Amino acid sequence: MKTLKEHCGIFGIFNNSLASRYVYYGLYALQHRGQEAAGIVTAQIGKQMFYHHRELGLVTKVFEDDSLFTQVLRGNIAIGHNRYSTAGDSDNKCNIQPLIGDFKGRTIALAHNGNISNAKNIRKHLEERGYIFDSNSDTEVIIHLLDETHETNLVEALKKALLYLEGAFSLLIMTNESLIAVRDSKGFRPLCVGKIEDSYCFASETCALDLISADFIREVEPGEIHEVNQKGYFVHTFKQETQLARCIFEYIYFSRPDSIIFGHSVDSMRRKFGQILAHEAPIPECEEEVIVVNVPDSSNTATVEYVQECQKLGYKCRLELALIRNHYIGRTFIMPHQGMRVDKLKLKFNPVKEILKNKIVVLVDDSIVRGNTSRTLVNMIRNAGAKEVHFRITSPPIIDACYYGMDFPKKSELIAYQMQENIEKIRQFLGVNSLAYLSKEGLFKAVGEIYNVQESYCSACFTGKHPYPVSNTDTTKMYSKNI
What we know:
It is a single chain. The chain is an alpha+beta fold. It folds into two domains: 9-245, Glutamine Phosphoribosylpyrophosphate, subunit 1, domain 1, CATH 3.60.20.10; 265-457, Rossmann fold. 30% of the residues lie in helices and 25% in strands. A seven-stranded antiparallel sheet has the order 3-2-4-1-10-9-11. A six-stranded antiparallel sheet has the order 5-6-7-8-12-13. The chain has a five-stranded parallel sheet with strand order 18-17-21-22-23, sandwiched between helices. The longest helix has 15 residues, at 266-280.
């Protein structure tokens, strides 16, 4: 139940006669990471020609014509991208990835998951140097920055260019000779390596590898450049960080529960969130049995564990599937205006009145952003006959915007920021009998760390502590001096 935008999904494969089809299936598995547009770029190893198809829409719609795979997307090397815009206009087709550009007279294609937080400053410098941009996305900055390094070897150019970037970037870069995968030095976004037969592939999440029956090899570690070509598989390092900033929201909402990211099962992490929340904020004490209802789908397993732990603690409750989700409706944050979000929420969920009537209900969700859609959902539950509605959230209050690949609303639009984290005021706004969030300490306990002690996760949306300066006015000056 979201009012936030999402980042993107990337998939690539090298040296496989069915490259474009495998990328299609990889993107299909990663559809949850971006529903705005999709694209695939292919080439034949050693040949100059690149082929591409990129359009607005879901993967199945963009590639519904099967002849695309036999007549257009030819070749044995391919990369693909699912887009949800965190930088650049959403309706500008020039922003659909993978982007195709030039590096020292050679064609390259690039797919990016994340957000370059200092892209505007770098772009301004590059434009002053005479570079022309076809899109207004932050990704194109990377292509021109590679050329600016004056290195003729692409990997060596990457080692230099990437040092000027701030923010999140998991990248796939394709030439007619190689496939290159990059993960930023703080490790914001996931990126993994797989292998199917003799072909290496890269994906944002392991669920994409599972779909094509590829073996999961390992993650691309933060600060690494992986290069695969006909000579072999090579790993380079462009920067080593002492302080990682892996996005903790990947566990809370974005990644699929059947994926393994940052070395952990997403499903097991969500179960821990629910378990700890049960100790911090169990169901209300009352004589009658309470029904606990999950908001499908990202809170499903957290709710299961929450109920089981509450039962162990002696509370009378049971899990009920009282919200039916229409899976043919996309995620609610896709809609660009609040009124449309509310309308789409009504299309997306329908309460089961027979279950809810005259019951005390505890609703469990993974997060609250603006609060408007949460309030609408609470009203739906009340209108279905519930006599009490309580809310439990398996993450802390969101108090700050994200600059690293999740397009949260402006800070001023966040309900927890507006209410200065006053839970009672938020409760009144939502119209619930009680409201409780997972604590920051509980969140970090679930991921095996201690809050405020050498954290390896980015939790800026919950804490306001950003891994990079939110506004760095000296970036352009520093960049111009050292390039």
